[in-house]
Amino acid sequence: MSVSMHENRKSRASTGSINIYLFHKSSYADSVLTHLNLLRQQRLFTDVLLHAGNRSFPCHRAVLAACSRYFEAMFSGGLKESQASEVNFHNSIHPEVLELLLDYAYSSRVIINEENAESLLEAGDMLEFQDIRDACAEFLEKNLHPTNCLGMLLLSDAHQCTKLYELSWRMCLSNFQTISKSEDFLQLPKDMVVQLLSSEELETEDERLVYESAINWVNYDLNKRHCHLSELLQTVRLALLPAIYLMENVAMEELIAKQRKSKDIVEEAIRCKLKILQNDGVVTSLCARPRKTGHALFLLGGQTFMCDKLYLVDQKAKEIIPKADIPSPRKEFSACAIGCKGICQHMETPPLITVCVAVAASQGLHHYFEKKLGISAIEKWF
Q1: Which of 63, 64, 311, 342 could pair covalently with 71 via S-S, beta carbons 3.0-4.6 A apart?
Q2: Rg, the chain, Cα only
Q3: Which residues form the BTB domain (predicted)?
Q4: Regarding the domain with residue range 28-143, which homologous superfamily does it belong to in the CATH classification?
Q5: DSSP string, 268-327
């Protein structure tokens, strides 16, 4: 077809009405990617060679730059990498992980599983494959567990995965008894340990666990960490520890006795404890403040049956657990009390817990529990 012939056709068409037909092939992008991937595998028209570990990957600069701002900046900048025919990542990225990223670049697909999700997230963040990073974060969010939430917390913090961080943080707070015994906890950086132990939302039935976790963390690398002891002690609600434990275990701890500042913190906690035991005024010190999650709800009595036990409402498990016998059965009476120390003592409940005893004689309380707590199992007790 000559140029003049095309011009003639244009002028002929302009004399009449113009009909427009927009052609779009929805599978075109996939077919182009498929063919580009085939060219890559055949090493045709490739213009850069990526190295990772002991493997090499021939690629097209245009494809890499189109899906990664990292490569776009590398190939378009004035640095030597923009003209180099090879890029060597050495051991900063595993060859299997780089291969997965390249497969995604040329196919828009990648299989994420428990074995590769964390490494893919790190590599995706490093090489600015944002879609991969976000997809891996979403996968890890769905696979959070008390046994891995600390690792996910550190990973998400390092790579700015906000939602994964928030979910991991909440799981760490609600499963402190589990994570405090793990190797991951002992390897946490100091700032994160302080943030965790000082949280008002930390769920623990016994402040002794918080104290012992702090001491264990220091002892894990004593030479480097002993200087942080006083800061960690300030995160523990020392005045909420049992008096005997505070006097015989904490005050006599060798690490504390050797540090003037740590010793002062414990002595102040002992003074607060004595004021609490002697009911000598209001104690406002942080070391005596219960954590927000330190509460329990107990049920006593009912409308339709003779009650001979005190029951604990477990909001997590959504069930009611018998905790203790009462001296004589009761029926059809009601009462409510908060902070019942006497019941705490008889129940052998850790002193940290604020107790709420609800004794129900009507269906109204049942509806309140079901609506607020989602505990349908409570129905059989009323």
Answers
A1: 64
A2: 32
A3: 46-114
A4: Potassium Channel Kv1.1; Chain A (3.30.710.10)
A5: HHHHHHHHHHTT-S----GGGPPPTT-EEEEEE--SSS-EEEEEEEETTTTEEEEEEEEE
Q: What average pLDDT is seen over the chain?
A: 83
Give percent of the chain with pLDDT exceeding 90.
62
CB contact at 8 A, 99 and 50: no
The owner of tokens 């974060």 is 137
pLDDT for 274 beyond 70: yes
Residue-wise pLDDT for 8-17, tens only, equals: 777 776 655 6
Kind plus residue range of the DSSP H or E element containing 352: none
Could you say which of 3.40.640.10, 2.60.40.10, 3.90.1580.10, 1.25.40.420 is the CATH number of the domain covering 195-288? 1.25.40.420
- CA dist., res. 109 & res. 209, Å (int): 46
| 203 CB neighbour count, 10 Å cutoff | 17
Greater confidence (46 vs 80) lies with 46
pLDDT tens-place string over residues 171-219: 999 999 999 999 999 999 999 999 999 999 999 889 999 999 999 999 9
